[in-house]
């Protein structure tokens, strides 16, 4: 962590602060990516469930699609709760661009983990579906840091955990 994260964050967020519409766009993009990711996951689960009635092997794919990301989510949540790392706005005098009142549970980022593991699941099913979602996961990681709700290490580790758990689908 930088000696003075507040100064680094103020430099990082300054362009947004000069343009209030950019702050609105940042928040809407954050929310939009969340909706797209969770919607994509529901579409994948529903699609495999539907195919399960007609295609052999679809039920085993559905089981993997639910158990592997779900198990990773639960494990990551337990680790976060145990570590209970403070968020940047708790440790530094910053005003985050993304309004949050939650304290602790910053490391690793569960939003970025979820987006990454969903993108990996989509890659597992069809790379043409998964690749754009992977790009959105990276964008979400950047937004969470610029928004002031996570440190860079939080989103990097969240993404790496998502890649690791998601790669289990390919085994």
From TrEMBL:
Residues 62-170 form the Phosphatidic acid phosphatase type 2/haloperoxidase domain. SMART domains: acidPPc (SM00014). Coiled coil: none annotated. Pfam families: PAP2. The chain crosses the membrane at residues 35-53, 59-79, 131-147. Keywords: Membrane, Transmembrane, Transmembrane helix. SUPFAM superfamilies: Acid phosphatase/Vanadium-dependent haloperoxidase. CDD domains: PAP2_like. It comes from the Bacteria. This is Phosphatase PAP2 family protein.
